[in-house]
Write the C-alpha coordinates for this entry.
Amino acid sequence: MTFHYPNGQPYLHHEAKKAKKQAASATTIFGKRGMSLEEELNESNQYYLAKEIAVVHKKPTPIQIVKVDYPQRSQAVIKEAYFKRPSTTDYNGVYHGHYIDFDAKETKSKTSFPLHNFHEHQVKHMDECLKQGGICFALIRFVVLDRIFVYPASNLITFWRAQMTGGRKSIPLDAVVADGVEINYQLNPLIPYLDGVDELIARTQQGGN
Protein backbone atom coordinates (compact mmCIF):
# COMPACT_ATOMS: atom_id res chain seq x y z
CA MET A 1 0.00 0.00 0.00
CA THR A 2 1.29 3.45 -0.92
CA PHE A 3 0.91 6.45 1.41
CA HIS A 4 1.59 10.06 0.46
CA TYR A 5 2.13 13.25 2.43
CA PRO A 6 -0.14 16.27 1.70
CA ASN A 7 2.47 17.60 -0.76
CA GLY A 8 2.26 14.38 -2.78
CA GLN A 9 5.63 12.99 -1.73
CA PRO A 10 5.55 9.23 -1.02
CA TYR A 11 5.75 8.11 2.60
CA LEU A 12 8.78 5.93 3.32
CA HIS A 13 8.26 2.94 5.58
CA HIS A 14 10.38 2.86 8.76
CA GLU A 15 12.85 0.37 7.28
CA ALA A 16 13.22 2.38 4.10
CA LYS A 17 13.82 5.55 6.09
CA LYS A 18 16.34 3.72 8.27
CA ALA A 19 18.29 2.58 5.23
CA LYS A 20 18.21 6.09 3.79
CA LYS A 21 19.55 7.53 7.06
CA GLN A 22 22.33 4.96 7.22
CA ALA A 23 23.41 5.86 3.70
CA ALA A 24 23.67 9.52 4.71
CA SER A 25 25.07 8.91 8.18
CA ALA A 26 28.26 10.83 7.41
CA THR A 27 26.38 14.13 7.20
CA THR A 28 23.20 13.51 9.21
CA ILE A 29 22.82 14.64 12.81
CA PHE A 30 20.91 12.16 14.91
CA GLY A 31 19.09 12.51 18.21
CA LYS A 32 19.91 10.63 21.37
CA ARG A 33 20.42 6.88 20.90
CA GLY A 34 19.74 7.27 17.19
CA MET A 35 16.05 7.89 17.85
CA SER A 36 13.88 10.57 16.31
CA LEU A 37 12.37 13.25 18.52
CA GLU A 38 8.97 11.60 18.08
CA GLU A 39 10.33 8.24 19.20
CA GLU A 40 11.99 9.83 22.21
CA LEU A 41 8.74 11.50 23.21
CA ASN A 42 6.70 8.35 22.68
CA GLU A 43 9.09 6.42 24.92
CA SER A 44 8.92 9.18 27.55
CA ASN A 45 5.12 9.16 27.42
CA GLN A 46 5.07 5.40 27.86
CA TYR A 47 7.18 5.82 31.00
CA TYR A 48 4.86 8.52 32.37
CA LEU A 49 1.84 6.30 31.66
CA ALA A 50 3.38 3.19 33.23
CA LYS A 51 4.28 5.14 36.37
CA GLU A 52 0.78 6.72 36.48
CA ILE A 53 2.33 10.19 36.31
CA ALA A 54 0.46 11.45 33.23
CA VAL A 55 -1.60 10.27 30.29
CA VAL A 56 -0.23 11.86 27.12
CA HIS A 57 -0.53 10.47 23.61
CA LYS A 58 0.42 11.47 20.10
CA LYS A 59 -2.65 12.24 18.05
CA PRO A 60 -3.05 9.97 15.01
CA THR A 61 -2.49 11.63 11.66
CA PRO A 62 -5.72 11.62 9.60
CA ILE A 63 -5.55 9.66 6.36
CA GLN A 64 -7.45 10.21 3.13
CA ILE A 65 -8.00 6.97 1.22
CA VAL A 66 -7.89 7.36 -2.56
CA LYS A 67 -7.66 3.80 -3.86
CA VAL A 68 -9.25 0.62 -2.56
CA ASP A 69 -9.31 -2.86 -4.08
CA TYR A 70 -11.99 -5.42 -3.33
CA PRO A 71 -10.47 -8.87 -3.99
CA GLN A 72 -13.53 -10.33 -2.28
CA ARG A 73 -16.96 -8.92 -1.52
CA SER A 74 -16.27 -9.17 2.20
CA GLN A 75 -12.73 -7.79 2.03
CA ALA A 76 -11.33 -4.35 1.21
CA VAL A 77 -7.62 -3.62 0.70
CA ILE A 78 -6.34 -0.04 0.83
CA LYS A 79 -3.88 0.45 -2.04
CA GLU A 80 -3.17 4.17 -1.87
CA ALA A 81 -3.76 6.89 0.71
CA TYR A 82 -2.54 10.36 1.68
CA PHE A 83 -1.61 11.74 5.07
CA LYS A 84 -3.81 14.80 5.63
CA ARG A 85 -2.41 17.82 7.45
CA PRO A 86 -3.30 17.59 11.15
CA SER A 87 -5.72 20.32 12.23
CA THR A 88 -4.20 20.74 15.69
CA THR A 89 -0.98 19.92 17.55
CA ASP A 90 0.70 16.53 17.85
CA TYR A 91 0.34 15.72 21.54
CA ASN A 92 -2.24 16.16 24.27
CA GLY A 93 -3.24 14.62 27.56
CA VAL A 94 -3.82 15.07 31.27
CA TYR A 95 -1.24 15.74 33.97
CA HIS A 96 -2.18 16.31 37.62
CA GLY A 97 -5.63 17.54 36.62
CA HIS A 98 -4.27 19.87 33.96
CA TYR A 99 -4.99 19.55 30.25
CA ILE A 100 -1.71 19.81 28.34
CA ASP A 101 -1.34 20.32 24.62
CA PHE A 102 1.88 20.71 22.66
CA ASP A 103 3.79 20.20 19.46
CA ALA A 104 7.42 19.09 19.07
CA LYS A 105 9.69 20.79 16.55
CA GLU A 106 13.38 20.72 15.63
CA THR A 107 15.73 23.19 13.99
CA LYS A 108 19.36 22.99 12.88
CA SER A 109 19.77 26.72 13.39
CA LYS A 110 22.17 27.71 16.17
CA THR A 111 20.70 31.15 16.77
CA SER A 112 16.92 31.06 16.38
CA PHE A 113 13.80 28.97 15.84
CA PRO A 114 12.08 29.66 12.48
CA LEU A 115 8.37 30.36 12.87
CA HIS A 116 7.58 28.63 9.57
CA ASN A 117 7.93 25.35 11.48
CA PHE A 118 4.42 26.04 12.76
CA HIS A 119 1.20 26.39 10.78
CA GLU A 120 -1.41 29.04 11.48
CA HIS A 121 -4.05 26.48 12.44
CA GLN A 122 -1.71 25.02 15.08
CA VAL A 123 -1.06 28.42 16.64
CA LYS A 124 -4.79 29.17 16.61
CA HIS A 125 -5.49 25.84 18.31
CA MET A 126 -2.98 26.55 21.09
CA ASP A 127 -4.45 30.02 21.60
CA GLU A 128 -7.93 28.51 21.94
CA CYS A 129 -6.65 25.94 24.46
CA LEU A 130 -4.95 28.66 26.51
CA LYS A 131 -8.25 30.56 26.71
CA GLN A 132 -9.81 27.45 28.27
CA GLY A 133 -7.09 27.18 30.91
CA GLY A 134 -4.97 24.54 29.20
CA ILE A 135 -1.19 24.27 29.55
CA CYS A 136 0.16 24.69 26.02
CA PHE A 137 3.71 24.83 24.76
CA ALA A 138 6.18 23.95 22.04
CA LEU A 139 8.89 21.40 22.70
CA ILE A 140 11.78 22.84 20.71
CA ARG A 141 15.04 21.03 20.03
CA PHE A 142 18.08 22.84 18.67
CA VAL A 143 19.70 19.85 16.99
CA VAL A 144 23.21 21.19 16.43
CA LEU A 145 23.39 22.68 19.93
CA ASP A 146 21.89 19.52 21.45
CA ARG A 147 19.53 21.62 23.59
CA ILE A 148 15.83 21.12 24.15
CA PHE A 149 13.28 23.50 25.67
CA VAL A 150 9.68 23.65 26.82
CA TYR A 151 8.60 27.00 25.36
CA PRO A 152 5.28 28.60 26.44
CA ALA A 153 2.63 28.86 23.75
CA SER A 154 1.81 32.40 24.91
CA ASN A 155 5.29 33.58 23.93
CA LEU A 156 5.16 31.67 20.66
CA ILE A 157 1.84 33.30 19.82
CA THR A 158 3.30 36.77 20.54
CA PHE A 159 6.13 36.21 18.06
CA TRP A 160 3.73 34.66 15.54
CA ARG A 161 1.45 37.69 15.58
CA ALA A 162 4.36 40.13 15.47
CA GLN A 163 5.65 38.66 12.20
CA MET A 164 2.31 39.52 10.60
CA THR A 165 3.02 43.20 11.18
CA GLY A 166 6.64 43.28 10.10
CA GLY A 167 8.22 41.49 13.04
CA ARG A 168 10.99 38.92 12.71
CA LYS A 169 10.28 35.50 11.22
CA SER A 170 11.99 33.55 13.99
CA ILE A 171 12.32 33.36 17.75
CA PRO A 172 15.85 34.23 18.91
CA LEU A 173 17.63 31.57 20.94
CA ASP A 174 18.09 34.15 23.70
CA ALA A 175 14.30 34.52 23.96
CA VAL A 176 13.80 30.75 24.06
CA VAL A 177 16.38 30.49 26.86
CA ALA A 178 14.88 33.42 28.78
CA ASP A 179 11.21 32.44 28.57
CA GLY A 180 11.42 28.69 28.12
CA VAL A 181 12.52 25.87 30.41
CA GLU A 182 15.58 23.90 29.31
CA ILE A 183 15.24 20.13 29.66
CA ASN A 184 18.16 17.76 30.08
CA TYR A 185 18.08 14.23 28.75
CA GLN A 186 18.09 11.44 31.32
CA LEU A 187 17.54 7.68 31.49
CA ASN A 188 13.88 7.53 32.54
CA PRO A 189 12.03 9.30 31.13
CA LEU A 190 14.34 10.08 28.24
CA ILE A 191 12.88 13.58 27.84
CA PRO A 192 11.55 14.71 31.25
CA TYR A 193 9.47 17.47 29.72
CA LEU A 194 6.96 17.40 32.57
CA ASP A 195 9.61 19.16 34.65
CA GLY A 196 9.12 22.07 32.27
CA VAL A 197 5.35 21.72 32.51
CA ASP A 198 5.63 22.01 36.30
CA GLU A 199 7.38 25.34 35.79
CA LEU A 200 4.67 26.55 33.38
CA ILE A 201 1.97 25.55 35.87
CA ALA A 202 3.79 27.44 38.63
CA ARG A 203 4.01 30.54 36.43
CA THR A 204 0.28 30.32 35.66
CA GLN A 205 -0.58 30.10 39.34
CA GLN A 206 1.63 33.12 40.00
CA GLY A 207 -0.08 35.06 37.23
CA GLY A 208 2.82 34.79 34.76
CA ASN A 209 2.99 33.38 31.23
